[in-house]
Design goal:
337 residues, mainly alpha, 2 strands
């Protein structure tokens, strides 16, 4: 098996980078929408908040499994990079974890708590969603800039922090359009119509700023023939945003037609943005410092880890697909009985 695909020191690090990148992408889309639902809590009525929680109830903990998988792969396949990245991002990682814990606790307690305490748990759910989203955006910004703590890099990290949060709230609204009906669906359509401008501004601002804060990204995007080969990405992104705007202004439609179209269009936009970032980083796992080949564990260790990953990954995919299949359809009344 060591020589089946050529030099294992070459293909094994690449394979694990693909696995880790895929897990991060799935996490951003799936946990992005349930974080987004939490971000929209202050704009909903008490009854609507119950329906919003019911729409993500069967999925939110399974969604976070993809984050655990990505961090696990980073730890076991690229242990040196794991130490460098988490050391540099220690504070935002801690904020993110506190936010995710607060969300999990509030998710359970808001339903079971006495009525006069429910408002506090609703605020905790929103606060946890906001903290997690802002922290993830801040980490992304620092990662893009090579984990260097300068004022310019911190400003860029704040920019990505705000706009990733806006992006999560938008995809959360599109999830609610597909998962709910009636007044809440109409309200979600309105949230998405307003949020699309923030989404478009975020995509444009981060795309424009990334090459300015990283000379390596500038060279990878604006050298010839790369600039010609990569030109479809911004064009497709613009087309998707226009399509989203047009679909959102046609909803709701009779028979609930195209209710899921905004969610899938938004998810595709996230995939394109992630693809652009992945291209910008490759072959680095620590930008400007360490490639995936330099950071990778020994091939003998990676082979063993790969066998484990090939066992675990189908299980994660299987129960995720099962959850989304069993609980498909519109969200119903929230109940724990």
């Amino acid at each position: 098996m060591m020589t089946l695909f050529g030099d294992p020191a070459t293909w094994l690090p690449f394979a694990f980078a693909l696995l880790m990148g895929g897990a991060i992408l799935v996490y951003v889309v799936l946990d992005g929408f349930d974080l987004g639902v939490g971000l929209l809590f202050p704009f909903a009525s008490p009854d609507e908040r119950d329906r919003m929680v019911a729409s993500i109830g069967p999925f939110w903990d399974a969604n976070e499994t993809w984050l655990v998988l990505a961090i696990g792969i980073l730890l076991v396949a690229f242990p040196v990079a794991h130490g460098i990245i988490l050391t540099a991002l220690y504070l935002p990682v801690a904020v993110m974890l506190v936010g995710l814990i607060l969300r999990g606790v509030a998710f359970e307690f808001r339903v079971k708590a006495p009525t006069h305490h429910r408002g506090a748990w609703n605020k905790a759910f929103f606060a946890g969603s906001l903290a997690s989203s802002l922290a993830q955006g801040f980490m992304l910004g620092l990662y893009v800039t090579g984990l260097q703590m300068t004022w310019a890099n911190l400003a860029f990290a704040l920019l990505t922090s705000v706009f990733l949060t806006v992006g999560f709230s938008f995809i959360g609204a599109t999830w609610l359009i597909g998962k709910t009906e009636g007044v809440l669906q109409a309200r979600a359509i309105l949230w998405a119509r307003r949020g699309i401008w923030g989404l478009a501004a975020g995509v444009a601002a981060i795309s424009a700023a990334s090459p300015l804060v990283s000379p390596r990204i500038w060279d990878k995007w604006f050298s010839w023939p790369e600039i010609a080969l990569l030109s479809p990405l911004p064009v497709l992104s613009a087309v998707l945003i226009v399509a989203l705007w047009r679909v959102l202004h046609r909803l709701p439609m009779e028979g609930d037609r195209m209710a899921w179209a905004p969610f899938w269009l938004a998810s595709t936009l996230f995939v394109l943005a992630f693809g652009g970032l992945a291209y910008s980083f490759y072959p680095y796992v620590v930008p400007e410092q360490m490639t995936i080949y330099e950071a990778a564990a020994a091939p003998e260790s990676l082979i063993i880890i790969l066998v484990g990953a090939l066992v675990v990954l189908p299980i994660i995919i299987g129960y995720s697909v099962l959850a989304y299949t069993v609980f498909r359809g519109k969200a119903t009344e929230l109940t724990y009985y």
